């Protein structure tokens, strides 16, 4: 299997403060905003992002965005060219489907390639309100990015707290 030559970089911080070609949003299927990273991106990026999302809902995403899929909008006032919105799977009492979480990373990278992006920042998708255990989410994120065929040169995981940072660091070491 061919794999990415993208450098993986870990940053502890706020994804809305990153300067990259693409900032990935852990959105929900409505695309109309939420808490966590989603709320922060819309707050800091300004209303242009939501306007784009509403246009998507009014056109090809009438039913919203399916879990594991990704779609791009403007990045508004963020220091990025695009926001890619992807919907992570919810962790249930019975567990979660790892292929859907992997799909979020893979589809976002595929779309980033289409957009000609060289740098992309990801949050730890599904590990907040959606409840995915951090260690497992970090494993899936790192394995998927390492296995992806992409022209993106830098994949930056932006981890909000020490626990998330440590989980990703462990996977990279
Ligand atoms: P999900 O619904 O996919 O679980 P959340 O936004 O609730 O998405 O959480 C995903 C992860 O993003 C969590 O680990 C959370 O701590 C983290 N997070 C929240 N705000 C930010 C931010 N501004 N920058 C980076 N990560 C963030």
Please write out the topology.
Elements: E1 7-12, E2 22-27, H1 36-45, H2 47-58, E3 70-74, E4 82-87, H3 98-114, E5 119-122, H4 134-147, E6 154-159, H5 162-172
Parallel strand pairs: 1-6, 2-4, 2-5, 5-6
Antiparallel strand pairs: 3-4
Helix pairs in contact: 3-4, 4-5
Bound molecules: adenosine-5'-diphosphate.
The site of adenosine-5'-diphosphate has 20 residues, from helix 1.
Overview of the structural elements:
This protein is of the alpha/beta class and 173 residues long. It has one domain: Leucine Aminopeptidase, subunit E, domain 1 (3-Layer(aba) Sandwich), CATH 3.40.220. Helices cover 37% and strands 19% of the residues. A six-stranded mixed β-sheet has the order 1-6-5-2-4-3, with helices on both faces. The longest helix has 17 residues. The radius of gyration is 15 Å and the shape is globular. It starts with 6 loop residues before the first strand and ends with a helix. The model has no long low-confidence stretch (mean pLDDT 96). Bound molecules: adenosine-5'-diphosphate (ADP). The site of adenosine-5'-diphosphate has 20 residues, from helix 1. The site of adenosine-5'-diphosphate (ADP) has 20 residues, from helix 1.
Short note summarizing the structure:
By secondary structure, this protein is α/β, with parallel strands linked by helices. 37% of the residues lie in helices and 19% in strands. Strands 1-6-5-2-4-3 form a six-stranded mixed sheet, with helices on both faces.
